[in-house]
Design a protein that fits this description.
There is one protein chain. The chain has 341 residues and is α/β, with parallel strands linked by helices. It has 2 domains: 247 residues, Vaccinia Virus protein VP39 (Rossmann fold, 3-Layer(aba) Sandwich), CATH 3.40.50; 62 residues, no CATH class. Strands 1, 2, 3, 4, 5, 6, 7 and 8 form an 8-stranded mixed sheet that branches. It has a 3-stranded antiparallel sheet with strand order 9-10-11. A two-stranded antiparallel ribbon has the order 12-13. Helix 7 links the parallel strand 4 and strand 5. The radius of gyration is 21 Å and the shape is globular. The N and C termini lie far apart (48 Å). The relative contact order is 0.11.
């Protein structure tokens, strides 16, 4: 969308929507009041959700995962950013069936029109029922009414694959972990998990931690005056996009290289070493990357360039070998990034 779309943004509506999201009242009633609400949201807040979906979908591409055949259901679709991001990552064949469901008729109509404009070959119907090939859930956890989880679990059980993307908060992340555990006997974990054992983050010793990651926004928004105004008006830090997600599949996922683990959150940085939270079948624990032993990996940690699925050989809690480390140069870390000993 061009500048004319930004000229039509309803900033008061965005403030009202954000107050509902932050205050926890968004799940109580349909908060869409007009087409303008949806258009303003889709241009701003929804794009940030879309960047989180881009992160997850890129992760699935890197994992070698592809969608199963069958209908896609975007449940609680809102303005439709989740299925549009999905189709950009995995282009639909002509005639691909897509089901949309939302409590808001306004949102359903908006999402239907947007997706048929962007992907005219998609066949859209309005339905909130399965069975489906792929079930998309996006930022619905905090809006579910009391007692809604059992019905949602039945919907999940009617799908081949679940892609569930949420905010990267402690409560939401750990709730996804509990749902993973309940479905573990029926589905294979695909992402962010690298194993199908018990969730290590839910172990008692890891109570302070949660499984979250950080998506990268497009670099161009930092020099875009429209996004600068959005950040000023809303008080949102455009650099921070924490995300929690869960991808489950009835099909076994592609195998991973030996020594693969999943990094969680961001590393803690010190002058001679970095500590990165890693998860694999052995559990979740902090791993030490020393500047002396692995200078390239240490520099990647300082520059925020560690891969999400590194292949690290460990000796105890120290990383002693690493594969696939990006070259990041010798630039110093940004001021304030390195913690004291």
């Amino acid at each position: 969308m061009g500048a004319s779309a930004w000229d039509r943004v309803d900033w008061e509506a965005l403030a009202r929507l954000r107050a509902g999201f932050l205050g926890g009242s968004a799940g109580e009633t349909d908060y869409w009041k007009s087409e303008s609400d949806l258009a303003s949201y889709d241009l701003t807040y929804a794009q940030r959700i879309g960047w989180k979906w881009d992160h997850v979908l890129a992760d699935l591409h890197a994992r070698g995962w592809t969608p199963p055949p069958g209908e896609i259901l975007d449940w609680g679709c809102g303005s439709g950013i989740a299925h549009r991001a999905f189709f950009h990552a995995f282009p639909p064949a002509d005639g691909q069936p897509l089901a949309l469901w939302d409590r808001s008729p306004l949102a359903l109509d908006f999402a239907r029109r947007r997706v048929t404009r962007a992907f005219p070959g998609v066949r859209v119907r309005v339905s909130g029922e399965g069975p489906v090939g792929t079930l998309l859930l996006s930022h619905v956890m905090t809006e579910l009414p009391p007692g809604a989880i059992p019905a949602l679990m039945e919907l999940i059980r009617g799908a081949t694959t679940l892609l569930w993307v949420e905010a990267g908060t402690y409560e939401v992340s750990r709730a996804l972990g509990v749902i993973r555990e309940e479905l573990l006997g029926e589905f294979h974990p695909v992402a962010p998990c690298v194993h199908r054992g018990a969730c290590g983050i839910l172990a008692e010793e890891n109570t302070p931690h949660w499984c979250h990651h950080f998506a990268e926004p497009p670099a161009g928004i930092f020099t875009d005056g429209n996004w600068a105004r959005f950040a000023n008006v809303t008080g949102i830090d455009l650099r921070s996009l924490p995300v929690s997600y869960l991808v489950l599949d009835r099909r076994p996922p592609p195998s991973l290289p030996p020594h693969t683990l999943r990094l969680i959150g961001r590393p803690r940085l010190y002058k001679p070493y970095a500590l990165a939270m890693g998860c694999d079948a052995a559990g979740v624990r902090e791993l030490r990357i020393t500047k002396r032993r692995l200078p390239e990996v240490f520099r990647a940690a300082r520059k925020g360039r560690l891969p999400g699925l590194p292949q690290w050989v460990r000796e105890g809690d120290e990383v002693i070998e690493a594969a696939g480390v990006p070259e990041v140069g010798e630039e110093p870390a940004p001021p304030g990034e390195v913690l004291p000993e």
